[in-house]
Amino acid sequence: MSPLTGAGNDRPATLADVAALSGVATSTVSRALSNPGRVNVLTRERIERAARELNYVPNSQARALTSGRTRAIAVLVSDVTNPFYFGIIRGTQHQLKAAGYTQLLVDTEESDELEDGTLHKLRRSFDGAILAASRLTDRRLTALAKEIPLVAVNRQTRGVPSVFIDTPSAIEQAVGHLVSLGHRRIAYAAGPATSWPNEGRWRALVRAAEHYGVEAVRLGPFAPRQYAGAAAADAVLHSRVTACIAFNDLLAIGMLPRFRERGVRIPNDLSIVGCDDIFGADFCNPPLTTLTAPIEQAGRTAVAMLLSRLDGGPAPMARQAVTLPTHLTVRDSTGPAPRTAPTAPTTNGVPTA
């Protein structure tokens, strides 16, 4: 047993201890453990054996001071309670863990100010950042990308590395599906005004509606949460449409009980389409037709892009932007268009709440 690990010595082992046991300089130990390729194989193996014998655990703060690297990545999401982000977080966590990095998870609460402020307050604590559905302006995001190694998920901004989940293409599929069922007036229950994907989905719906010769109606904005579903459902009933595409699944799922309260049958009287195919979309009542997205893959891809940049300089232009395909998954919330659009119930000609 090494005297450094003997009874009564509870002091954590240091680089100097590993160096003494392996018979090399402390600087050699540091290189062997942080950049193994720069040290002779036999020397590295001797150092690694010594580190294991001493139960040596690297000090991340000391390593950051000497190398300028923390081995931590900040992952910012707009709403940690939204199941959409569960997949992003799971993907980033798995990929970062495999690469030996720690994940710093931040909920920005749909706030661009909180997102911006957090990045600056924690800047010394992470090597790079992944921004999922960033609420920052294009100008601010571009400026940050020049200051901080980052990758944006579900956002396309010139000069900013990104992983884009192509929901606009699936929106076009959804419109084609609804048109094939006879729908001619389709609503879009919009998400937050600061959401970049929100505008992309609306533009895709308008293009598809023009292509098929049907009418698109924009409603909202609504919070991208289940509680906003009641207000969205009421707006749909006042818009005289026979189908609605919601900004996300949470909003669509929140609309379903409100329609039941008001005697509107889904899909007999009205068809509903969600977006993201989150956990629960397939066992709500009725199961939700939605746009299925490779959410976990987006998190993994963002980490791979960011670590490639950190380890080898700027990524090639071909890797500055990655687009992941999506598709429409048809379930029971869509059906043939009714002869007339459902309307809000009235009492003596006055719409009820």
TrEMBL record:
Source species: Leifsonia soli
Protein name: LacI family transcriptional regulator
Transmembrane segments: none
Pfam families: LacI, Peripla_BP_3
Span of domain HTH lacI-type: 13-67
InterPro entries: HTH_LacI, LacI/GalR-like_sensor, Lambda_DNA-bd_dom_sf, Peripla_BP_I
Xref: Gene3D superfamilies: 3.40.50.2300, lambda repressor-like DNA-binding domains (1.10.260.40)
Keywords recorded for this protein, A-Z: DNA-binding, Transcription, Transcription regulation
Compositional bias per record (Low complexity), positions renumbered to this chain: 336-347
Stretches for region Disordered: 329-353
Protein origin, superkingdom: Bacteria
PROSITE patterns, A to Z: HTH_LACI_2
GO molecular function: DNA-binding transcription factor activity; transcription cis-regulatory region binding
Entry keyword annotation includes Coiled coil: no
SUPFAM superfamilies: lambda repressor-like DNA-binding domains, Periplasmic binding protein-like I
